[in-house]
Design brief:
With 272 residues, the chain is mostly beta strands. 9% of the residues lie in helices and 32% in strands. Strands 1, 5, 8, 9, 10, 11 and 12 form a seven-stranded antiparallel β-sheet that branches. The longest helix is centred in the first third of the chain and has 12 residues. It starts with 5 loop residues before the first helix and ends in an 18-residue tail after the last strand.
Length: 272
């Protein structure tokens, strides 16, 4: 499991809102306050999705590059993933394209590295030391073509789309990595938060362009890590106008007091 990039960078690179959850760490040292602090922290547990493995019915499953993601692979973590991709040149503009995993540990044909050549010509999705980042392995993309193209090489959709994460229980803190936001001539990218699943208006919205790339790149191969701590929400929406991928999602999800919710083993902490 790779370490989420937020551990070193997100705190200074993305907007951060105050939250009662983080203030628990500063509670007074009295026995009563310490007990209260522990109780508050027990209400939230970290869940880390890096697209290398899924947890299905309590069993960890390795995910291969190129695999189609249907969205319920992390139901044991209390999250459902859906996609909405509308391409104006298609007859059916409402046709959603599938989500798929892309192996970002790859190289350009002229690079002398012990790595496979990037599939689909998507050299802009490559990660690793040559781009100033840790290798990110599998990343989540919207496949360029529809279901009929799943037997072809993974290839991210040049017209982007919207990926939505809907949570079973309230989420208060997230870390999200986004790769290759460089098609700003097509429009802005957005990260939106909704208090309720059926809300039509976002409680708050951030622009992808305002999240600084951790490797200093502005276009191809850039990685932006967004961390947000604020009011609880139940739906997260990432919309972007062109090429791009999600590298990871780590979140603190609310659990019932006493641990009555059982979503399987808790993965590596997000780092806050």
């Amino acid at each position: 499991m790779r370490i989420p990039l937020v551990l070193l960078h997100a705190v200074i690179l993305a907007p951060i809102l105050s939250t009662g959850y983080s203030s628990a760490a500063h509670a007074d040292s009295t026995d009563n306050d310490a007990h209260q602090s522990a109780s508050e922290q027990d209400l939230f547990q970290p869940y880390f999705i890096d697209f290398e493995t899924a947890l299905i019915d309590g069993i960890e499953v390795t995910l291969e590059a190129g695999a189609e993601i249907v969205g319920d692979e992390w139901a044991d973590y209390g999250v459902q993933i859906t996609v909405d991709s509308t391409r104006s040149h298609r007859k059916d503009r409402n046709r959603s394209l599938p989500m798929r995993l892309y192996d970002s540990d790859c190289r350009r044909p002229n690079e002398d590295l012990p790595l496979p050549i990037c599939t689909g010509g998507d050299f802009d999705l490559a990660t690793g030391e040559q781009y100033g980042t840790a290798p990110q392995g599998n990343v989540l993309i919207i496949q360029e073509r529809g279901k009929e193209a799943l037997n072809q090489a993974p290839d991210d959709d040049a017209r982007g789309g919207k990926i939505t994460f809907t949570f079973k229980e309230a989420v208060q803190t997230i870390s999200l990595g986004f790769l290759d936001f460089d098609d700003q001539d097509r429009g802005e990218g957005f990260i939106r938060f909704y208090e309720e699943e059926d809300d039509n208006n976002a409680a708050f919205t951030f622009k992808l362009s305002e999240v600084t790339a951790i490797n200093g790149l502005q276009g191809d191969n850039s990685i932006r890590v967004f961390q947000e701590m604020g009011e609880a929400f139940t739906k997260l929406e990432v919309e972007y106008p062109g090429s791009g991928a999600i590298t990871h999602l780590c979140f603190d999800a609310e659990v019932a007091p006493g641990g009555s919710e059982n979503w399987g083993d808790v993965p590596e902490a997000c780092g806050w």
